[in-house]
Design goal:
3 helices, 2 strands, rod-shaped, mainly alpha, 2 domains, 72% helix, 105 residues, two-stranded antiparallel ribbon
């Protein structure tokens, strides 16, 4: 009976060790998968998501494309704010101000 008891105890210890190892491997795999998913989302945010990507309804430009678009908009605004010889909003305001002066412009 002593041999059977030792065999059952050894089998139980092996099962417990395998369960602990399985639990640890599961936790490590889940953590790594979560990190990789976050890195993937960050990469999509930085590089953008093209129309051909799965779930194309969620397409968006990358950070550099967004910065380029903002720079272009800022240039157009700056063009209108500063006088440049007749083509800007500032030139138009100056012309209107000149025409509305009491001395007749």
């Amino acid at each position: 009976m002593d041999t059977v008891y030792k065999a059952v105890l050894a089998a139980g210890a092996v099962c417990a060790a395998l369960a602990a190892i399985g639990f640890l491997v599961n936790r490590v795999v889940r953590t790594v998968v979560g990190l990789l998913q976050r890195v993937g989302r960050m990469t999509d945010d930085f590089l953008g998501r093209p129309e051909t990507a799965p779930g194309a309804g969620d397409q968006r430009p990358g950070v550099l494309a967004q910065l380029r678009a903002m720079d272009n908009r800022l240039r157009r605004v700056e063009h209108q704010v500063h006088r440049n010889g007749g083509d800007s909003m500032a030139d138009g305001v100056a012309e209107i101000r000149q025409a509305l002066r009491p001395d007749g412009g």
